Fold each of these.
Amino acid sequence: MNSLNEDTLIEGSRWLEATDPRFKQVFEITGPLALRHKPGGFSGLLGSIVSQQLSTAAAKTIWQRLVDAKLDRPRAILKSDDQTLRAVGLSHQKIRYAKALAHANIDYERLATYNTEDVIETLVSVTGIGRWTAQMYALFSLGHLDVFAPNDLALQEGVRMLAKLNTRPTPKEAAAMAEPWSPWRSVASLALWAFYSQQSARAQ
């Protein structure tokens, strides 16, 4: 299975330019896209749970406490009482999510062989993991090439800027507009995130 790497990032970027000429302007602004990768497995998903609704700095602090306390593995989470997990900064809700993930007993090596929709279906069955988190795992941890998360506000804004729309598209509209970018929607997503970020910085 092909995955996101330096070569496929270039291949996908060229394909998008040829298929949708609007991406030529995007790449003129963003320059070559940066390859982004996040850890996979239990710790990768636990990190996503920890970071929900927190600033990057706060999430990083709590995550480091978990690592220092050796609480970043399923067995350690299951053996720990709520008081211990609260002490490192997890909320009551996130303790429930962390334990649900540990109880799920996901075969992460096997998960890495699944197609994108099967990855998402497996992950969203776990309490505390929504579709967006599952999509980000497929894209950034597994390197799937054709992931687009229409509920992502930054992607919606990127699509709005690309299409020169007056209003932000709905998730359904954004998903429909992204369909022609398949099988390279992950590369399109990286391009639109970078495009939105740079255009927003210019506007400030």
Amino acid sequence: MSVILLNKPFRVLCQFSPHEGKTTLAAFVEVRDVYPAGRLDYDSEGLVVLTDDGALQTRIADPGHKLSKTYLVQVEGKPAVSALADLRHGVTVAGQPTRPARARAIAEPSWLWPRDPPVRYRKSVPTAWLEIVLREGRNRQVRRMTAAVGHPTLRLIRWAVGPWTLAGLAPGQWRAAAATDLHDV
């Protein structure tokens, strides 16, 4: 069984098959017969777990297993305590309530790589960084959650999936990982 951890760069499709001039995972990972265990949006960055094990893919991606996924999110504005409480309680996204999440304000990560192109800077609008931990994974969920509390997402980086993290991986880099037993995570 293969497990690969990839730091997916910004503006890369989370698939291997070619797609109308857009960069895909194939530009970074030449290992055959591995597939993403869950998706990460084209305009999001960070950890993608790839595997050749269908059962492991399901365990990682299926919201029924409630595997945690940790995101570092730069948002527009400075969220009040009440906005963070709303994220922790769960908000309504596309007419459905989200599961409760862990959400807290953090300092901008000191290890963070620059994004190309950079996030648009506006002198009159402050930004803040949040750490959000989900145990579900709806389409564009983090972006929709932060927008629902009045703080649109400017930059989204998935830091961790269960026990695996981006530690030591620059954008576009990957490494093999152990197929950790996820039953206790």
Amino acid sequence: MAEARNPRPGAKAPAREHGTLVIGLGRFGSAIASTLADLGQEVLAVERNPELIAQWSGRVALVEADATNPEALEQVGARDYPVAVVGVGSHLEASVLITANLVDIGVPQIWAKAVSNEHARILARIGAHHVVRPESEAGERVAHLVSGKLLDYIEVEDGFTIVKMRPPRELEGFTLAQGHVRTKYGVTVIGVKSPGLDFRYAAPDTRISVSDTIIVAGHPDLLDRFSRRP
């Protein structure tokens, strides 16, 4: 494990074909960096706060540097990483500067944390490929879970969402073809998990029982309507 260090003038990390650069070791960035490390992925964290450097030293590979400075990013070899995550969110100016620096050096995939709609728009406009609002997205997900029969909720993009839920009573004992789910509700059951059995992809002759869990895909509004069936 690399320990905290200051980039030396002229120093440059060796080129990497894989790996993720994580900038900022707050709650969001540290969760990403530590999870990637636990998964055996190559990750380098960049942080300028001495307290966070001390907290994470020896736990993830990291370097002490100010990523708002383009030269510092060059010194840590940021341009050699195919993916960079900007975990700095609460400091708007720093977030924008870091993201702009990564865009300028041509990082292929830039994920950036935003704390507001305005912040998200700015990050997207300057070139961030993926903008994440973890607090807002988590709140929306929990709202969907507590408001109905949903067991899990994943909004993908462009109005496409996947949910895990208990089947409505009207499907119990019937096959999907007999239930006419897609025709009646505009959603698609893509998988079924029965107790004690492996997950299986759904087919027209898949029969649904009261104890099953079903995986359903479609537009959020249609899924919400479907999930509210008794």
Amino acid sequence: MTYTSFDLSYEGALAHLRLNNPDKRNAMGLDFWRELPEAMAALDQKGKTRAVIISAEGPHFTAGIDLGAFAQLAANLGAGETDVHKKANVGLGFIENVKAMQAAFTALEQCRVPVLCAIQGGCIGGGVDMVSAADMRYCTEDAYFTIYEINIGMTADVGTFPRLLNLLPEGVVRELAYTGRKMLADEAAHYGLVNKIFEDEKALLAGVNAMANEIAEKAPLAIHGIKQAITYSRDHNTQDGLDRIALWNASLLQQSEIMAAMTAKQSGTPGDFAPLTPIKKIGE
């Protein structure tokens, strides 16, 4: 399937989603919010993908939400509506649209395999929301991050705060959100927002591709379990996290997978691991 907001390609066990509108700094138009969760669900459904890379064409990763599209959305929701009954539901319509936009990034978090972001230039507004939903982030020396919404008089609402507070100290998040200032690559690495800085985009893509391939060599079921356990433990207390991973391994830990991993390590050959089961709808 083809998309208008990005290109989606496959290389072996890796999927590469590349934002493809550099003339608009890869701004997230209306199609993007529908296409992203559709693409994530499609690549996850077959069970063949072992890691996903998200990158972008041009000098900037993304300018965030397309403000022109946002204005169109506001008009569609009834901005300036005079009918009192329709006007009463404008707020509800807004909430439903925001939830759909939030779900687009939650799709990265819920994907069964790791999602790695390769970021160059500006990662602005909604871009921060998106990368904070990924498993790991890598960037170039010229990269910067900004919670830009305050500069246009709004509160970020697509996922910035719930996720960014798990990645950065609260005081830093507050400063970024209150001021809209840029966090440069060095500062992002200092606080752990990004895993590693690369000199330029070529080195960035090579490095992220190498990391994704290293992950793809591991047992898919174990990687899926790790992603589940980390995300669950982040959002729950210690005992809940311990109970969750115990139940997970009681259900899914297989001797055959352990033996395949040991054989692969000893022989230096790819492991004969069980692939993830394709996701099927009820009745299929």
